[in-house]
Amino acid sequence: MLIDNFIEDFSKTFSDLNQSEPWNITNNLKNIIEKMIINLGDDYKIENNIAIHKSATIENNVTIKSPAIIGADCYIGANAYFREGVYLDQSVKIGPGCEIKSSIICSNTAIAHFNYIGNSIIGRNINFEAGSIAANHYNERINKKISVLYNSEIIETNSDKFGSLIGDNSRIGANAVLSPGTILVKNSIVKRLELVEQVK
């Protein structure tokens, strides 16, 4: 599994990472972002390990916990909540009331209002309609370790926190739920109210 097969040019931004284990990237995202902040230019306002591009728009009552990188021309709606390491690429739109945790969201992706994205890597030009969720933890299972299904093979992540890897140009319908460990190829469509549970 190579993230570049899901997200175009992922490795150009995130070099020197093990692309075959996206769950390790999200679990270590705080350290990855802290190192990236050091190399950012004057186009960013950097304070307390939070880097916000000067062209980004951030509405009222947004909470951003360090570390975080908010890229050029991003828009973050009122009352959004970012925690434990968030990376937004260029021209990402986050709607009001969203919560994003330990996730990478690539360019030109829109996350509508009242969404939750946890421990996920979200590709380019993706649209999440309102209320859709990328869950990152099995609350209901005794065994919390997350497995993923890729090329008809079940891969053990040995992690109890991993959300989704979503390929470019995908569409996630309103109030859909992506169960922990969801892997979606490019151009995937998840219908409104659909539950995606690839490993049961």
UniProtKB/TrEMBL annotation:
Pfam families tied to this protein: Hexapep (PF00132), Hexapep_2 (PF14602)
Keyword Acyltransferase: yes
Coiled-coil segments: none
Signal peptide: none
Keyword vocabulary terms for this entry: Acyltransferase, Transferase
A GO term, aspect molecular function: transferase activity
InterPro entries: GlmU-like, Hexapep, Trimer_LpxA-like_sf
Domain of life from the UniProt record: Bacteria
UniProt similarity note: In the C-terminal section; belongs to the transferase hexapeptide repeat family. In the N-terminal section; belongs to the N-acetylglucosamine-1-phosphate uridyltransferase family.
Record-given protein name: LpxA family transferase
Originating species: Flavobacterium psychroterrae
Source taxonomy: Bacteria, Pseudomonadati, Bacteroidota, Flavobacteriia, Flavobacteriales
